[in-house]
Amino acid sequence: MEFVIKISQFLLSLSLLIVLHELGHFIPAKLFGTRVEKFYLFFDVKFSLFKKKIGDTVYGIGWLPLGGYVKIAGMIDESMDKEQMAQEPQPWEFRSKPAWQRLIIMLGGVTVNFILAYFIYVGLAFAYGDKTTSLASLKDGYWIENQLLQDIGFKTGDKILKVNDMEVVNDYDVRSNIIGAENFTIDRDGETKVIALPEDFLGQFTSADSRQLFERRIPFMVGEIADSSFNKSSDLKVEDIITSIEGQELKYFDQLNSIMANYKNKTVQVGVLRGNDEFTATLKVDENGKFGIFPGMDRDRFAELGYFDITLQTYTFGESFAEGGRDFVETMQKYGAQLKAIFNPSTGAYKGVGGFKAIFDIFPPFWSWQAFWVLTAFLSVMLGVLNLLPIPALDGGHVMFLLYEMVSGRAPSEKFLERAQLVGFIILIVMVLSANINDWI
């Protein structure tokens, strides 16, 4: 069921982004009297799942969900329709239109991507506001479980004061500035330290077994009791919180292993908090020092118990437009920084470039409209920025040649454009294959 939910979100988001991106090309093309021969969601290699011709355009759905396209008459694109290009230019063809009209047509897709992302951020700000956790409320610092962070010098309990030279005030500031971070200033037991990150930190992180970074310290809440657990028939219920073991306080889940090491193959008395009631339960510990209980997560409950603060900032409809704009600009800046790191081999960030599996994996295994729209907005920004890269076969490649034509007063020859398109297509294939191979290694 989890797979069905994830794949549904993935395909819905991808379909929405593709259709709107291609509409961004389609609408100005039609406004300028340019014939659009095909409008497809997904690729129709050999056959289509659905197609219908309306006017001059065939609308359809392909079977290969790797993107979509519009085929514009008289344009050198991935279709490489040399037969059409060998004929005399017709008034309704792309190549017959003024350069400024062709530029608008080519920029239409990414423009729609950016507009879509902006309005999604506006809607998110109005519907959900912003939830943040102040670092001051993390009284005992962060939980550092990732071995890479431990090797660099971080320890559980560290409080983060600065990322580079920027003071951080909430949990989001820490997470959102990982890319581009060179050092962290921390407070460890009242002593200020500076921990430098290795230049290839991003590469090491993407290759590490754990993808956890700085985690909030939380109590041991019961999420699920394994069927194979000795404690399957215990008195515990989901959302109970284990507060002590044999009289020893268990404030945080990260303290569990060190305490349990003393009770392998034993029966212990644990303190339990259920709602506002406290009681004692008897649990068995296996030979590995485990209860066979999977931890649960309820941030609002943890905030209620004082583990950290959650501040909700709400926005009026009018305020949401400014807040949505800030979120959009920030996302653009951070994705730009991510691309810069990826194209700098010394950072090793290219190792983390993923393909369709990586995109699929970021969707949660439960249906959440908030998560869906947050991810769709980010993917819309990503799609827009990537399409602006000056690579032939991408929108940015067409724009590059059009700008050259507008500045120089002469267009590149069709033979040159055909060859450039082929080179660009090969580059794209290599990039897509590399990204998708990264998903599995």
Largest sheet: 6 strands, antiparallel
Number of domains: 3
**Strand and helix order:** HEEHHEEHEEHEEHEEEEHEEEHEHHHHH
Sheet-strand content, in percent, reads 15-25%
Which spans have pLDDT < 50 for at least 5 consecutive residues?
none
Total DSSP helices = 13
Number of strands: 16
* Proportion of helical residues: 40-55%
- Look at the structure and give the mean pLDDT: 90
Structural class: alpha+beta
Give the end-to-end Cα distance, rounded to a whole number of Å. Answer: 26 Å
General shape: elongated
Cα-based radius of gyration, to the nearest Å = 27 Å
What does this structure look like?
The protein has 441 residues and is α+β, with helices and mostly antiparallel strands. The protein has three domains: 189 residues, no CATH class; 83 residues, Pdz3 Domain (Roll), CATH 2.30.42; 78 residues, Pdz3 Domain (Roll), CATH 2.30.42. Helix content is 42%, strand content 22%. Strands 10, 11, 12, 13, 14 and 15 form a six-stranded antiparallel sheet that branches. A hairpin with a 2-residue loop joins strand 13 and strand 14. Helix 9 packs across helix 11. The chain is elongated and about 90 Å long. The two termini are 26 Å apart. The model has no long low-confidence stretch (mean pLDDT 90). Belongs to the peptidase M50B family. It is a multi-pass membrane protein. This is Zinc metalloprotease. It comes from Subsaximicrobium wynnwilliamsii. It is found in: Membrane.
